[in-house]
Write a structure and sequence with these properties.
By secondary structure, this protein is an alpha+beta fold. 44% of the residues lie in helices and 15% in strands. The protein folds into 2 domains: 58 residues, no CATH class; 136 residues, Alpha-Beta Complex (Aspartate Aminotransferase, domain 1), CATH 3.90.1150. The longest helix is centred in the middle third of the chain and has 32 residues. The termini are far apart.
Amino acid sequence: MLQRPLAHGADVVVYSATKHVDGQGRCLGGVVLCSEKFLTDHLQDFFRQTGPSMSPFNAWVMLKGLETLPLRVKAQSSSAAALADHLATLAGVTRVIYCGRADHPQAALAKKQMTGGGQMIAFEVEGGKEGAFRLQNALKIIKISNNLGDAKSIITHPATTTHYRIGPEARAELGITDGMLRLSVGLETTDDLATDLEQAVSAIRKA
């Protein structure tokens, strides 16, 4: 919805359709997009031998999800942009990483290739892992989960979940600190999410 990799020269695009395409936590699926030549040269034998076919029911759910995808992505992206700006004003938040903000290190590239900033925000808080955990545990609306792209807002701590296995040195090289959190913005009211984040950030400094 926000970026067209094939138009920018990508040979193959792989989507986790579990995320935005379904977008409501109902089923698993994936999509591979490529030219017919790439399919024939690189993928056809694999598909023929392994049979990675989506079930009819999951395919139907995904098709129904596509009907509302533009509306959901637009609403989630708008909310994420507002929340990223709000997080940047809060004491206790030391850094906000959102490609729709002018202070993102690749803001110019994102603006050139994308039509919006999307619904993913990364931000760092004081207190490292302890501060991040205290914030997560104080949230009332936003749920803790390793998923993303759902209708509900989801937060995760990459250093102890998605990027735990790569080790501290690799995380440091990627800029993933112990105080970093990843927020996938859902369809809740933006003001409610802002209030939830604000009260959770304030919990970081409480004993």
